[in-house]
Structure formats: C-alpha cells, structure tokens
C-alpha cells in the first residue's frame, strides 16, 4: 500500500492494451497498487466484480461508481505521459486523449478484478476451509466486521455449487502457463534475447519463422531452445503441441497450408477453436487487438465472400470429377469387353474382318485404332435458359416435396461466361432481381449472400441475386415436356429405300441384335416434317412412351412436384377406407343388449385383473432443486401486482374523487341567500373592544410557574389549537370526544372500525387476535437485524402498544421507524437500487446520544465507512417527541434536513456536533474529494408537507420522505401526480397507505415463520 501523497511517473504505456510498461519498477507498483486499492475499498462480502446478466435476490456486485472511485484513488499515486492527460494546462478537456485513458482504466480495473478474486480465494483456502479466523491485523484489519457474513457466503449451498463447477472446468484445462504474474509482456523481451544470442553464435533457432502468437504461447507453457543445437525442447518431453506446432509451421512455410486470422498454426496444433474475450499467446485482450485488421488481408465480410467462393469452386470441381470418373469407368468397361473377344481360327491369317451382315461390305483394314469420342451428359435445361431478355418471373422456395412462391422479380438472360459481381455464376443458378416479396418471407435466408454479406430475402429487394434455375417460374407457362432419354442401342444406320429396319451395334458389341419384322412402309411426308411416333414395341424395346399431354394451368402459387419438368407416373389409388362399424342408433334392441352385456363382461374381467402398483418416480438432485425453486420464486402475477402502498393509495384517491363529485353535485347553481329566520346565527354578542396592552399578571405568573415565557406559551397554544389561558391552566380546556387507549391484550381498533380496514391491516389484526389467546403470549415481538442490513447482528423489540399506535395513526416509536427502514433496505436490494444507504434510528437517536455518546460515535463511524460509496444516506433521527430526516450526501459533503415542523436546529445541536466530529475523522482517514466540514442545509417543507398543528404525525412524514428517496426516486408522471394528490388528502387518507404498507411487511417478514426477520418467541438479551 503506497503512502498518501506518494506519486510515481509512468513514461511508456502500451497503446493497444493500456498497460504501463516503463519504467518497469513503476509498472510493477501500478499493478500491486491495484490490488491494494480494491482490498481497501471493496468489502469481501461483495460476491462478484461484474454485474450479472440475470439479477438474483441477495446477489451483490461492484457498482460502476465504486469502480470509478477505485480508479480515481489509484491514479492519485501515478502520473501518465502527457498524451494521456485529461485536461490541458488551461483546464480544457482533451477529447482525443479520452480513448487512451479509457484503455488504461480498462487495464487497471481488470487487474483489480483479478486481485479481488484472488484475495477472496486465498481467504477461503487459508481460513474458511480450515475453520480458522484471521487476527484482523495489518491488511486483515478491515475484515473484522465483514468476516461473519463472508464465512456464511462461502459455506452456503450456492457457493459450494459454484465452487464445484469451477473445479470441474479447471480440471478440463489441459495446458497451464508458467509465466507467473508478469505475463507475456514481461517474458517476450527475454525470449527474443535468447533467440538473438543463438543467432549471434551461428545457431538457427528452432522457432525461426514461427508465427509470433504460436511462439509466445509455446514459450509461455514451458517451451525453450536447446543452448547447443537451438532445437525446440520442452520441460515435459511428451508435450504434444511441440511437434504439432513444428509440423504446422513447416507445412505453412512450404506452402501446403494457408492460415487465415484465428485459424492459424496454434489453433491447428491445439485442435480446438479460439474463444472470445482473450487471445492465446497474447493474453486477456479482445480479438480486435489480438487479431488486428492490419494482419488480416480481408475484412470480415471479404473473408466470408472468399470462403463462399472457395466452397463453390470445390463443389464444382467435385462435380466435374464425378462426371469424369463415371465416363472413365464406362470407357474401361468397353475396352475390357473388346479385349476378351477371340477371333475365329479360320480368320487368323486373313487381313479382313468378318462382317455381321452378309450384304454389307467390310471396310478396308487399317492399322489406326478407332477414335472414341466421350461427351459428358448435358446439364438439364430449364425455362430460364431460353430467356433472351429480362422477363418477369416468380421465385419459389422448396418446402418438403413442394415449392411455394416467395417473391416476384425479373430473370436475366443466362449468357455463356456471364459473371455476377465479377465472380462466375455457379451451375444451376441464374441471375434475378427481387421486386416484391410475399408477406411473411422477409426473413427467408437465400442460398448465396450478396457481396455485402446480406442473406435475408427482405434485405435484397431491388438487387441482383442468384436463384436456382429450377425454382424460377414464369407466369402462365405450362409444364415443359422433357426430352426422351437416349436409347440403349448405339447409333445404328438406317435401312435402304424400301424401308429395311435399321440395325445397329450395341455400343461396339460384335454380336448383332435380333432382327424384328419390317413394318409396312409409311406414306410419303413432305421434307422437313417429323415422322409420326412408331407403333408400340415389345417389352424389351428401349423406345420411350409418347409424352403426356401438357398439364392444365394451376391457379395455386405452389406445385406438388418439386421438379415440374419431369413427368410423374399416373397411379390410381386403391380404396383404403374400411367399412364403418354399425352406429349405436342403427342397432336393433337385441344388438344393443348384446353390446351392453359384452361391455359389462369386459368391465368385470378388467376389475379382476391384478394390477402392479405404479413404480415410484425417482428424481435427480437437479430436478428436486428445480422443483423447490418454485417455493421461493414469486409468481408472475405477484410480481406485476401493485404493492400495498400503491394499491391503498389508489383506493384513497378514488374515495377522494367520489367525495368531491358528490360535493359538486350537491351544490345548487347561483347564490343562495338565507331568508328571515333561516340564518345560522339568530343573535349577535355585543362587540367589546379592548386596547392592546401588557399581558395580565395572572398569565405572566402562570407562565413563569411552568418555566415558559408568555411568547412561547402562546406558540404552544397556537400549535395545540387551544387558548392561552387553557394552556396555562387558568381555565378549563375544551373537552373532546373520548379517545381509545391501549389495554394489555385489548383490541387494536374499535370493533366498528374493523370493517373499514384495508386487507393487510385486517390480516395483521387477525394474527394479533389469535396471538393474544396463547397462554404465554408476550407484550412484544422481535425483528431480527443481520449483518447485511446494518453491519451487525441484533434484534429490534416491537411492543404491542406500538402496533396500537400504528393502527390508530398515533405517534410512531423508534422501533416502527426502524422496521420501515428495514423494509426499504429489502426493497432497494430487490430493485437494484445500490446508491442509497441507511442509518438505523434504533441504534442512533437522541436518547442513546445523551446516555452513551461514545457508542453513538462508533456506530456513526461504522455506518459512514461501510456506506462511503453510496450517494445518499438516509438518517431518521428522533429527539424529544419529534422526528426529522437527515440526508447525508457524500459527494457534496452536505446534509439535507427534512423537518415537517421547520423547528429550530438548536434543538438537535448535539447530533450535529457528533456528525461533524465523525466526518472530520472520516475525511482524515479516507481518500477522496471531501470537504472538511459538513454543510447542513434545510429543505423547507412545502405547503402540503407541513404537519398540522396539534398532531404527532412527524414519524409518518419521515416515512413518506424516505419513500420519495427510494420507491419514488424517479420523477415519473405517476410519482408527480401522487405527490400533488397527497397535499389535498386529509392526514387519515394520506397516511393510510403507509399503515397498510407497514402492516403487510410485519405480516410477511416478522410474524410469519418464513419471513426474513422472523424470530422464535424466546427470551433474548439485548446488548
């Protein structure tokens, strides 16, 4: 830990990662200070460094503002180069340095995260797992208050499950580096020095020509060079990646392999892909830095297009190779058949070959071998191949064994050698434009992406794309008849003029085919006309049947046949339906009786069967855990329902609205003047005018007897709504209606008022009625306060009379306000409000300050140090018979005072002095931009927030103000309207939602055994 005021200069910073490099000594101090700062300012009870994507109840993480403060405290000890300064000499902000400084901050926060996790791991390993407790001295001094909660977290089921999962993941890691905390940046200059020393001695390093990333990874995982031969050796002789890297780099240098960005030698040698978030061989840096664009000959989309082109070329080569292979196999078979034929012995000396037809002359013998021309089968032709100019078309997409129209466009002519964006067009595709898209197919993925990488059909509208030829249809076209396949016989010659049937060899076979009867001569046809189709042949003939008639035009935009140019064979389906059974209403009486008897016998037989009991289901631990999670997970309906306060406030607002509407309806239009005898006052007392003079002697004497001045007595009389003489006891005070008082085990409210209570107050009242019937019922209940609430463990005692005060809108005691604070702490945790803290009025109040000032000082110090990263700390303070709310604003070193009576601050000067004393101690020991003295500023209560005279509702005003800082902190329209409406409601209607909110919380969290603050009904000793 560096001393306060101690600074060091950083001269060189890595431009890519923001890591300080030179001088090395200061760079090491920078990294070490990252760990010191995070250990000093982040409690070990914080569970994670980064905020998770999915929030969890009771889960804590380091907030962004905390990270910002940690970085600020770190930079108080270090000076970066001028190009990293935030402001110039004149105090102007330098925008171009913002990105450089952001990289330094990112690097520093990463080191803090690593140090924070490592620190907690060491504590768990050295102390928690061994059931030990540190001495809380030195660097462990600040862990004393957090240790109990830290041990509870580490022994919880959730942590044990995470620890087990992390161990399983760590066991999967096959290779571990041996570089220590220095990392690649520390060792790379040393590895380079080792290679240069070998080169200086004339020894070629074994890593010569290696990719820098692969070389760094291999060195960092234990690899080195032999000092005599320069060969690659490893401390583990069986290290698999060594030979794999050598082979990969050798193949790359010989041109056998071409690497591309992350798919390089290291990835090939290790056999697993690169993961995001870090680059092997370079450290925890993102890909955009580890795989720089300068090292990438293509951009991302260019590389994608290149990969598509390579795939198309490979597919075309494979197709051509298959055609060539089939053709070669045919040729070899024909040649082998000719070689196995033996000539007749009589012809061995003859120079002429025998003829298969006696009347045909044998061609003269020749020494030249006959040439066999082999041609590949022609690709199928589609209607788009006959397009000569741009033509409207429909684009179909295959779905199962049919195709559906997805777009309308125009087809371009398929010219030989045509290109698509300077690339050859793949076989079976044609160029089209997309003009209109059928609704619902905008997200359809096309086969070949555009040069910009677009694959959505909706993104290529009015662009040229490639589409399969067989899926391009033209409006109004009929199915095109396919050409007959080639016949089995070779191209035999025609007969003579008389019409002898054409014989022909069967592909060079020496045996002539059997002759068929010569058909009758056909009539002469004009030249150029096609002959009529031949008569039917025997079954062995290869002549195809006549083409089917063209199909009728279909109105649908889809076709059953995926390739409409290949005719489907016509097949008459056979009937597949079985005869239906006789329906009940068609049966006769005898048939119905027989069927009923059969059903009855079947039922009796089924009842007599022995049935095996169903096997008991067996559930895994994961299934049990998943099922149990439903017990603690609130339903979606409960999450979306308004809370108790909002629901009751809406009820009171509707009642207020109905009351106003009735008042407006009851008023008559026009001014009404009371007639004679209808006036409210029938007589007028005589007017007595007294001159203003000194107060009567009896008034002065009565005030002095009570220790008051006449002025202060007059103020009290005004606040209580009484006369001055009544306050001083010189005359009888006006009698008011009798008020219900608390009686042990008596009712909380009058029976007539029970029906008017809202739901949660009714529930709490019913619990109270059942509780007081117990023989051992006590006059109080407890609410448990744990470490995560107010940083220590204790109990709050709630007397039954305080519930009586709450139900009857009387003055609130410290325990009720303390419970309200606990309720808001839980709400802030659920709603992820992390910048608001609290001070418990049960611990710090006027009575404790008067009796135990030293304890109050230590409690205030604990509350401030534990919540120094909060923006506001809400401190309800009770003195005498009055409540105020003090809001400590850390960043401004200011305290806002909310007082519903705007009383003189001298009445609570003691707590003000104590807060100043603790604040000075805080400023001296903590690092930050704090003022030496707290500034107290009164927040003057508005017209609607002033407490009515003669009431003790100050506690309710404090609770309402706490709610504004938590539940209603966002100035939405609803919150503004709610605040304005409060000022128009009566006190009973205004604070009834607070009563309902507190009653619901007591019922759920205090008296319910499943509640967070529930305590067994046993004797507890308060400290």
Total DSSP helices: 28
Rg for CA atoms: 48 Å
Number of strands: 21
**SS-derived structural category:** alpha+beta
* Helix proportion range: 25-40%
Share in β-strands? 5-15%
In whole angstroms, the N-to-C terminal distance is: 37 Å
Shape: extended
Poorly predicted runs? 296-301, 341-360, 482-546, 551-567, 1019-1023
Instruction: Estimate the mean pLDDT confidence.
Output: 77
Can you tell me about this structure?
The chain is of the alpha+beta class and 1023 residues long. The longest helix is centred in the first third of the chain and has 40 residues, at 300-339. Helix 1 crosses helix 2 (64-75) and helix 22 packs parallel to helix 26 (954-965). The strands form seven sheets. Strands 7, 8, 11, 12, 13 and 14 form a six-stranded antiparallel β-sheet that branches. It has a five-stranded mixed β-sheet with strand order 17-18-19-20-21, with helices on one face. The protein starts with 7 loop residues before the first strand and ends in a 17-residue tail after the last helix. A hairpin with a 4-residue loop joins strand 19 (882-889) and strand 20 (894-898). The protein is 37% helix and 9% strand.
